Amino acid sequence: MHLNPYGEYAVLLAASLANDWPDDREGIVARAREVGMTVEFPEEPGDHRRVRRVIDDWLTVVDAPDPRSRARILNDHMARAAAYPRLTDHHDEGWHLHYRDDDATSLPRVLFAVISVGTALHLTTRGMHRLARCAAGEDPGDPCEAVVVDVTRNGRQRYCSVRCANRAAVRRHRARAVDGRGS
Questions:
Q1: How far is it, in rounded angstroms, from Cα 87 to Cα 152?
Q2: Which of 76, 77, 95, 132 is most buried (CB neighbours < 10 A)?
Q3: Separation between Cα atoms, residue 128 and residue 151, nearest integer Å
């Protein structure tokens, strides 16, 4: 079964890169392979730096203040990145859609297109609220700025990890105890 890298997989790739930036180009390619991308990326000077810009651009979507702003930013990204959708089978690897020109094979260009379209698909099928920063970012003592891609069934994931969720629960418990509302 061929997994389409658009949608959930593209957003998870973008979050993985944003939350734990690889030291080199090979680390970026390895992450792309982990989510099922099989295309070969010809190496070009500055790939590592240019993909960092792709992720920084994507973070403007994550940090958008409301759904309309998020949609406007994503529409701009897709207009810059995407071509008309086309069917391809990459040397008999299974038919799927591409949202980029066939000659757009550089690592930054492919990731920009895949992440832009994938984020749009994720948000329109799952909900515009399904992409955010970790709710533990509100902790003044130890804020977390990790990106959370909510792929849960109920759509209520707010924390990037169990660790952050537990820290927030302990913080709330202690605040109630200080206020005299709990023990």
A1: 30
A2: 77
A3: 12
Cross-strand bridge partners of residue 148: 132
pLDDT digits (tens, 9 = 90+) for 41-61: 899 999 999 999 999 999 999
Residue type, 71: A
Q: How far is CA 84 from the centre of its chain?
A: 22
Question: The whole model's pTM is what?
Answer: 0.85
Measured between alpha carbons, how far apart are the two ends of the chain, in Å? Answer: 53
Nearest to 108 by CA among 75, 86, 80: 80
pLDDT digits over 74-125, tens only?
999 999 986 777 787 766 767 877 777 766 678 999 999 999 999 999 999 9
Collapsing DSSP states into helix, strand and coil, what is residue 148? strand
* Contact status, residue 159 vs residue 168, Cβ threshold 8 Å: yes
